[in-house]
Amino acid sequence: MKEQLQALKTAALEAVQQTNDEKELQQIRVNYLGKKGELTGILRGMGKLSAEERPVIGELANVVREEITAALDEKKAVLEEKALEIQLQTEKIDISLPGYPVKRGGAHLLTQIVEEIEDLFVGMGYEIKEGPEVETDYFNFEALNLPKNHPARDMQDTFYLTNELLMRTHTSPMQARTMQKSDKNQPVKMICPGKVYRRDTDDATHSHQFTQIEGLYVDRDVKMSDLKGTLDAFAKAMFGKDRKIRLRPSFFPFTEPSVEMDISCKVCGGTGCRVCKGTGWIEILGAGMVHPNVLRMAGYDPEEFTGFAFGMGPERIAMLKYGVDDIRHFYTNDTRFLNQYHKA
What we know:
Strand content: 15-25%
Number of helices: 11
Radius of gyration: 39 Å
Distance between the termini: 81 Å
Helix content: 25-40%
Mean pLDDT: 87
Shape: elongated
């Protein structure tokens, strides 16, 4: 059997040395070392050997297997290296050909509007705050002068998760959160952009999810004239220096007095047209002086401190600024719409 093993090794090594094909090399491996290969066939006869001969033949068989395997692996590495060299020599890249154009994305129109508003108010000394979208009933309502069973709660159809947790209906809770955490000897100037949620039927002008930007300024001796000046600067920066504003009395539970702000119609310049329904004005946002109860619950003395707050919708601003006629365009991800507002 020793002679058989030596002859098998010689034949296998010679076959490995002579081949120059990877497939043929793999076949040699199968022929000599496979489950039905020649080495296995020889080892089947070990049962006829004496007890003294078996370990000797077994050790020799292992040596033969290792030598053949090493020769196969070495030959495989050589053939793979040669194949790579041939591939490198035959394959060339024509660097003179033009590349494929890469389509670049851009910020969503609403993101652009939010960032533009943020830049404007940061320039006026405001900080940007962020708050949780899952809010407590206390901060969403009670801390904003909307106690349990207050009729004004019906104005905001709410997604309740539990009796005390809900999807925030406005970004106004950050008024209370910011004032409660603030140093009462320092002024508070902040805006809070973010998503809000209301149980509403989606149509061209309404959505169950939309964005808001809340603004707040609290300090000693803050007046309604400060609010008007701030909103006038905002309107001119967003819509043009020729735009005018007007404030109309309104009602919000967390401000007193409360106002709705209109801007002069861009289409007709204030003379009246179909867009502004003949009034010359377009409603843009709500605002007012912070209610004394809201100040008191946040730890401020309303006899010493005053403030104003405002809330605006970036969707509404984008629709007016760019003539978008359907709020659903912002959420349907139609690239034909979105690509119109990509900035270079």
